[in-house]
Amino acid sequence: MMADLKTAGLESHMQGVNVKSEIGNLKKVILHRPGDELLNLTPNTLEELLFDDIPFLPVAQEEHDAFANILRGEGVEVVYLEDLMAEVLDAKPELRQQFLDQWIYEAGIRTDMYHDIITDYINSNYAGTKDMVMKTMAGINLQELPQKDTHLLVDMVSDRCKLVCAPMPNLYFTRDPFAMIGNGVSINRMYSQTRNRETIYGDYIFKYHPDFAGTPTYYDRNDTFHIEGGDILNINEHVLAIGISQRTEPDAIDQLAHNVFSDETSTIDTILAFNIPVSRAFMHLDTVFTQIDYDKFTIHPGIMGPLTVFEITPEGEGIKVKESPEIVPYRDAFRALNINPNKFMCSIEALLTRIAKGKGFPEISPVVDFGNAVSLKYRLPIGAHDMGTVSRALEVRHAQPGDSFVPFGGGQAETAEPFCL
Fold first, then answer.
1. Going by DSSP bridges, is the β-strand pair 77-80/26-31 parallel, antiparallel, or unpaired?
2. CB within 10 Å: which end of the chain, N or C, has fewer?
3. Do strands 3-7 and 26-31 pair parallel, antiparallel, or not at all (unpaired)?
4. pTM score, two decimals?
5. Is the torsion defined by CA of 283, 288, 293, 294 positive or negative?
């Protein structure tokens, strides 16, 4: 997984961002070469750092170098995350201490004493800018720091191999922390705190690096909701696909969509939100859905049954979940009856809209829940009732004056509108 910056058929200059395809010829890419962060993985920290095993660094680097050379052989310009970050700090030396303070704080250091110990240690041992950047990626364990009699209980009982600042071993998945969207970028708020620290580099690069400063930012690492780059796919210059997944929340998609549609330079006019199962096996859309040609995709069969896709398009200053072809006939029928379909949705549209907004599947009763599940699968309004509880004859007709009903979740009867069935 890598952060791609350019695709073929677009302007030839190599500054800025221009990604409008998953399948076009790659022009430029950001990689991270596996480094000492892998050496700070231990059996006790694997789960926390989201690894199942400890990669062997020499082999990881050898395989990475072979991969990078294949890209270069195809004419791709390969740039490295660590180099871009070092170039930012070399060009703007006043940012070095700001970055270091921010990195130390996000590593969980809250005491002035340890902030100063770590700052002195890095400035004394990693004076070179790139060396310092690489060390922030690799992490620091307690035995590296000068032994001082702090008189702190935590230091007296801590193992000297304890991690003080955790490494970032997932950095070579460069697409996740920041993702290119057309001519802009999403600096993501990651699902896990462990990985959220990775986005600090993209934040500085897209704010201050001369090749990327001024790039429209469609999402910020300090925004509230989680979103990750593995869920963001550029289908073409007009269509963006985003997964609603274990790692990406629908609220984040709403916010990103608003920002994309509000950008006058963006050519994207449709966002497809794929509601895939919440599972580590399907953690990102790109693990189950891959574009291989302009009109061809591979798809994991495990998402086929429950898959729902929502189409988001601009509307004025806001966005809406556009009616799918299955819903349009119901809305047309409502209009023909002089019923406003925006005020009174058919049941399946209301159900789909509820789920699109992240409110979850409504749980009412086993029979009704089953009916709603079938309704979602086939996008049909379906009502299910326990006939054993019905004591009177059933009629299908328009409501008459005086008819009333008890709504779901309500304890008091309401008067039915004349057009209700």
1. parallel
2. C
3. antiparallel
4. 0.72
5. negative
